[in-house]
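Q: I'm a student working through a structural biology exercise. My instructor gave each of us a protein and asked us to get a predicted structure, then write a short paragraph describing it. Mine is Cell filamentation protein Fic. I'm not confident about reading structure output yet, so if you can add a plain explanation after the tokens, that would really help. Here is the sequence I was given:
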Amino acid sequence: MDFRGRLLPERGTLAGYSALIARYDLVLPLPPRLAAIADRHHPISTDDWLMLTPRHQPHAELGPQLTFAFRYEGIDLQVLSRLFTAVDPEEIAAIIRAAPTGAFARRLWFLYEWLTEHQLDVPDPGKVRLATVLDPDQQYALGQGEPSPRHKVLNNLPGTRAFCPLARRTPGLQALSNLALGDQARAAMGRVRADLMARAAAFLLLNDSKSSFAIEGERPSGQRAARWGQAIAQAGVRALDVAELDRLQAVVIGDARFVRLGLRDEGGFVGVHDRDTDQPIPDHISARPQDLPSLLEGLTIFAHRAAQGGMDPVVAAASLAFGFVYIHPYVDGNGRLHRWLVHHALARAAFSPPGLVFPISAVILRHIERYRAVLESYSAPLLPLIDWRATDSGNVEVLNDTADYYRYFDATSHAAFLYDCVEQTIIHDLPQEVRFLQAFDAFSQAVQQVVDMPMAKVELLHKFFEQNEGRLSQRGREREFSALTSDEISRLETAYAEAFGA
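A: Happy to help. First, here is the predicted structure for Cell filamentation protein Fic. I'll explain a few features afterward.
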């Protein structure tokens, strides 16, 4: 069976969200994982499909299908948002009235009014134990939510109606959460001399800044890279708001004579133009300009709620950063701001140790194809759902309401990617830089035992050795280091080999 281009792994019947999407013909990107009831009693699930046995088959009515979805698939705000506009409010109210004290009914009641801002006529459930809106065993949620007295639920959603991506608590993501990578980084820093750690942190910071530009295909001047590095170092110091994002865009751009600063006042897309017609060929279409104030206000509130509410910092950072880059609120600078938001979220949650910036961009640059695949995992299926026309200026104008597409995406794959990046910075980048500095210090001290040499010359000598497999090249012998004797060169080559294991 083929459901909107996605093949079931075996014969079965749609259930839960897939059944509701099909019944009401909801227009939206399919959730990354859907559910179905297999014809046989020992089905095999895949990354795309949760296959359950015939005994799990829900009745075809709206209420049983929603109950099934909540229980086995979690909360999908994008599906629910579209569904609630497609059904009669009285139908939802009737489901709630049928069992007003039940946790499912109260969660449904809250979500309906939260998403639609329309109150239903249902009775007070009386004294009941608060139910969490998100099941924290199923999806990443706030550790500390706020009660909703009307619905008798605990709102542990990380965002607001304006912006609230969610991530599923998969076994792989849970295993990464359990690693306590922030604690590992602090422990690693504690085993290194403070002065050495400060030098390592400074290099990693500049490397992250340069890598962030390199991802965008730019080679900034040293001054511009250092200026952006300073902005990265300050991530998390100030509360996030649109004014702060505007300030950071100005820092990223530097020379703004040919770039409009501030939020877009027209459409936007990522892609190319046809060489002959200059018509846009989008790979991704950004949020409509009229939706930007609401989306960015929601994004900044999400950042605050996630940090204050104890949400997993890496999952929150991924939701925030990738949500921002899908919205693409600026004409230029979005990519670097998107990666800056990772640093902001990790610092704000005290996940990254003080004084250390995880060089996320450097890792992304090493895995650029996977990074692009993660970006396209949502933007590619979204593209066919956006109605647009080309403008006279070679831009795009979006013709349908697309705001929810940017508010409620599934951030599971984005969180898994970011967790892998953070883990690599801790197990690879940070130790590698510390080892290099330790080796360089040993090499520098050995050089001084052979010949009195200024640090700039020591660094140049190291570069010569590094580029020539531990030997001083003929050019180095004849030009830059012609003053050295053959015996001194031999001793310096030995010192390099002992320090760097060459």
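A: Here are two points you could use in your paragraph. The two ends are 59 Å apart (CA to CA). The chain is about 50% helix and 10% strand. It's a good idea to check both against the output above yourself.
Q: Great, thank you!
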